[in-house]
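Shift notes (night). Ran RNA polymerase sigma-70 factor while the centrifuge was going.
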Amino acid sequence: MCNVDGEFIRQINVKQVSAYRELFKRFYSYMVLYAMRRVQQREVAEDIVQEVFIAIWEGSKVFNSYRGFRAYLYDLVNNKCLDYLKHKAVEERYVVYMMENQQEGEDGEFGLMREEIYRELYIAVSELPERCREVFELHLKGKKNDEIAELLSLSVQTVKAHKRNAVCFLKERLGNVFFWVLLFKLI
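Came back to this:
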């Protein structure tokens, strides 16, 4: 191990802030890419890597070598990715179960969840720019692109662009709730 790497590990072990800045510079991009290959979502991958950095900072593990430290980082990222994927699978199974077992009146917890998702969706839709909101509200009412174009005196391409922009905005604004919106086929 070269002296620079040895000094870096010593500084990590004594929780020196400058070493954590160096840790970020050396590993952040690579670890995010590594996590993205597993979870397929950049934001989730970035969150996982942040969790790993926090775990290193808060942990009491002492590292003996640069190579061992590096292997530990990637193992930690891999394990957190696996935990995320397991949790996501459980959520998806729950949703399927709830949808298969929902009652016609949608009472109880499922009905409340659906109601809350509708509320979040409509709050987010109200934040869209005016023309984009008008297009998207007509879409939510079941209107086809050519009908919306005619009603609002727009081209079909403009309608499609407004819908695409609305979906991008909603996806970013709603975060995890967007998954539920799609699942309930609300858009």
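The two ends are 56 Å apart (CA to CA). The mean pLDDT is 84.
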